[in-house]
Amino acid sequence: MLKAVNNRLRDEPKFTRLDFRRGKVPIINVFSSRGGQQFDISVNKRDGLRQLLEIQRMIGGVPEFKYIFMVLKCMLKIRGYSETYHGYIGSYLLFCMVF
What we know:
- This protein is of the alpha+beta class.
- The chain folds into 2 domains: 44 residues, no CATH class; 54 residues, no CATH class.
- The chain is 47% helix and 17% strand.
- The longest helix is centred in the middle third of the chain and has 15 residues.
- The termini are far apart.
C-alpha cells in the first residue's frame, strides 16, 4: 500500500522530493514545494494517532511548550541532527525529552 501511495504522490507537483524508506516502520519522507515543509507518511500504524492525541492533550495544558519545541526542532534541523533514520532525534523523541 505504501508503494502505491509513493507512486501516486510522485506525480504531484506539490512535492519536490519523495524518499521511500524501508525499515522497522516503512515510511515515505515527503518534501513540499510550498514552504519547504517536510513530513512522513506511514500506513497501518495506529500508534501515530495515539501519539497525536497525547501530544495535543499535553500541549493544551502548557501553551508555551509548542514554542520551545519548535525552537529546539529548528536548532536540531540546522545542525543536521533531526533525522531518525540516521540515529538522531526525531520529533516524537524530542517531544518526550522536553515534556
